[in-house]
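User: tokens in, sequence out, please.
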């Protein structure tokens, strides 16, 4: 995970293939319920990519179960509107509480599940890509929200936690899928991937 984070190339929008949608994954809220710095950085990178013309749809995904405030997805969408993204280009998913749920809950809201650009922090891109592929997305491009990351910018504890989470998702996703094989409806098994 450390190697991926520090070797992730700085990307220019013009290097991206045309896509059907840009998907912006939230990173949580501040204690006061407003967007945290990481979430806002991700949102601004997605908004810039939209304005660069890489995709006609901009999807914001992220819920809020811990604050008495609007969900993260809605707050990012509000920022997009303030920065000139038209309403008809915005898709909002407000229920997810994990990366697996970001994928499960966002894909049904999109006009297409292929040719997507996922935007999140570089250390989170591998887990995000695997989550969206597992949920049914195809032909994904990855765009780092933090393209100018340098050695030492991310606390090692965060990278260790991300490494653990990718393995945890590797166990939770198949359990969720197997529960579906046994006829358990999605609403009764979403807790598995929370």
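Assistant: Sequence out:
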């Amino acid at each position: 995970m450390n190697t991926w984070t520090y070797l992730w190339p700085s990307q220019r929008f013009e290097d991206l293939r045309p896509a059907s949608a840009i998907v912006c994954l939230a990173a949580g809220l501040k204690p006061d319920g407003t967007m945290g710095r990481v979430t806002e950085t991700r949102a601004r990178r997605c908004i810039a990519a939209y304005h660069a013309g890489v995709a006609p749809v901009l999807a914001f995904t992220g819920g809020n179960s811990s604050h008495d405030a609007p969900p993260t997805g809605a707050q990012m969408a509000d920022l997009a509107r303030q920065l000139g993204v038209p309403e008809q280009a915005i898709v909002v998913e407000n229920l997810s509480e994990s990366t697996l749920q970001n994928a499960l809950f966002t894909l049904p809201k999109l006009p297409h599940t292929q040719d997507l650009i996922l935007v999140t922090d570089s250390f989170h891109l591998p887990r995000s890509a695997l989550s969206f592929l597992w949920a049914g997305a195809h032909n994904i491009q990855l765009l780092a929200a933090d393209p100018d990351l340098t050695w030492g910018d991310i606390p090692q504890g965060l990278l260790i936690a991300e490494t653990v989470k990718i393995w945890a998702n590797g166990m939770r996703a198949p359990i969720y899928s197997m529960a579906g094989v046994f006829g358990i409806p999605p609403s009764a098994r979403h807790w598995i991937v929370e």
